[in-house]
Amino acid sequence: MKYINIHTHESSGNPAVLDVVNQYPSSFEQTDNYFSIGIHPWYINAETWKQELNVIEEKLQLKNCLALGECGLDKRRETPIEFQLEVFEAQLLLAEKYQKPVIIHCVAAFQEVIATKIKLKISVPMVIHGFSKSQELAAQLLKNDFYISFGKYLIKNPELKSVFEIMPNNRFFLETDTIQEGIEEVYDLAAKYKNIDVVTLQQIVTKNFKTVFKDGRMDGTL
Ligand SMILES: [Zn+2]
């Protein structure tokens, strides 16, 4: 069984790990490995975003491009939320066109993300990455068919234990994003919180991965 890491900014280079490495359209690096690609709300550029959208559209058609993202909304940033929404919506429509799931960065804008999903009738899976909020918000996201990915805050914030414990097994993922710790450490802690062994946890995440992130090459590495 592999350790599946659905969101990282750097390949681990470890054969025991399956990484989905985040890429930006403005600095795309050719790869045979799995990646996701999207315009991050921190890096929206009014001059270039439409051109970046073309790059995303082109890369989404590659079989090893497993998702669109990270993209989303961040109310703690200066870019006006209306402009962030325009860029987010354009990306969601591309994900829908190419039937790829979406990895979402969301800060202080969860109600807007949920409303956008409903408004655009997005049918592809949407994964909130780096979740750090309450049980109530997690429940609302689950009710609206989101998946939730845990990593950094699972390790850094002990209060998140109570949120992770109640996550249904078919609705979560694990990730490292930019933390120093390896994905193995995230799995160790997550297995402890769920009171199961790591292999069982790997089986759960692998099943979710196969459901959400369809590998166009079906190479059987799992
Ligand atoms: Zn990230």
Architecture overview:
The chain has 222 residues and is of the alpha/beta class. It has a single domain (3-212), classed as Metal-dependent hydrolases (TIM Barrel), CATH 3.20.20. It is built from 8 helices and 8 strands, in the order βββαβαβαβαβααβαα. The chain has an 8-stranded parallel sheet with strand order 1-2-3-4-5-6-7-8, with helices on both faces. Strand 3, helix 1 and strand 4 form a beta-alpha-beta unit. Helix 1 (49-60) runs parallel beside helix 2 (81-98) and helix 7 (183-194) packs across helix 8. The chain is globular. 39% of the residues are buried. Bound molecules: zinc ion.
Task: Summarize the model shown.
The chain has one domain (3-212): Metal-dependent hydrolases (TIM Barrel). By secondary structure, it is an alpha/beta fold. It has eight helices and eight strands, in the order E-E-E-H-E-H-E-H-E-H-E-H-H-E-H-H.
Rg, nearest Å: 16 Å
Strand order of the largest sheet: 1-2-3-4-5-6-7-8
Report the sheet-strand fraction.
15-25%
Any guess at the CATH architecture? Alpha-Beta Barrel
> Uncertain segments of ≥5 residues (pLDDT<50)?
none
Order of helices and strands: EEEHEHEHEHEHHEHH
CATH topology: TIM Barrel
Distance between the termini: 7 Å
SSE diagram, text form:
Blueprint: E1 3-8, E2 17-23, E3 35-37, H1 49-60, E4 65-74, H2 81-98, E5 102-107, H3 110-119, E6 126-128, H4 135-143, E7 147-150, H5 152-156, H6 161-165, E8 172-174, H7 183-194, H8 198-212
Helix pairs in contact: 1-2, 7-8
Bound molecules: zinc ion.
